[in-house]
Write a structure and sequence with these properties.
Keywords: DNA-binding. InterPro entries: HTH_MarR-typ, MarR/SlyA-like, WH-like_DNA-bd_sf, WH_DNA-bd_sf. The protein has 7 helices and 3 strands; from the N terminus they run H-H-H-E-H-H-E-E-H-H. With about 150 residues, it is mainly α. It folds into 2 domains: about 40 residues; about 110 residues, Winged helix-like DNA-binding domain superfamily/Winged helix DNA-binding domain (Arc Repressor Mutant, subunit A, Orthogonal Bundle). Strands 1-3-2 form a 3-stranded antiparallel sheet.
Length: about 150
């Protein structure tokens, strides 16, 4: 019987997994952009809204770090989002020098709709999978994600 370390050691299997993940990532990104094209936000604005939706109010510095952007780039991004009433700048109650980016109702509405459409797309792709296959895929992706997280 072959163990997982032997299988992983076979470069061909690893190459196929990497290729599949790359293709899947590309398809998901393209489908996401198709969905986003129905809204008045850009992909970077969507990413910023995702971080705010998941983690709540953030400073420009925190958001810049999450998005791997320069603070000046993130400031411009937030300026445009504020102009479109997706977010607002709010002074921190404990330290007035700190300004946090807060998502407004319109930002929440857009992020929820886009995520819902993306989930519906994925659900349609998975219709030919058995319940067991879906659960196994979920578990394996969660395990892979956990292994890839920085410490």
């Amino acid at each position: 019987m072959t163990n997982s370390k032997e299988i992983i050691g076979e470069l061909q299997v690893v190459a196929e997994i990497e290729k599949d993940l790359r293709y899947i990532s590309s398809i998901i990104k393209q489908k996401g952009r198709e969905i986003l094209s129905q809204y008045t936000i850009t992909p970077p604005q969507f990413i910023a809204l995702q971080w705010l939706f998941e983690y709540g109010d953030m400073t420009i510095g925190d958001l810049s770090n999450k998005m791997y952007l320069a603070c000046s780039t993130t400031t411009d991004l937030v300026d445009r989002m504020e102009k479109n009433q997706l977010v607002e700048r709010v002074k921190d109650e404990n330290d007035r020098r700190v300004v946090r980016i807060h998502m407004l109702k319109e930002g929440e509405r857009i992020i929820e709709e886009v995520i819902n459409k993306r989930q519906n797309y994925l659900q349609s792709v998975l219709t030919d999978f058995s319940e067991q296959e879906v659960l196994l895929l979920k578990d394996n992706l969660a395990k892979l994600h956990q292994e890839m997280k920085p410490e």
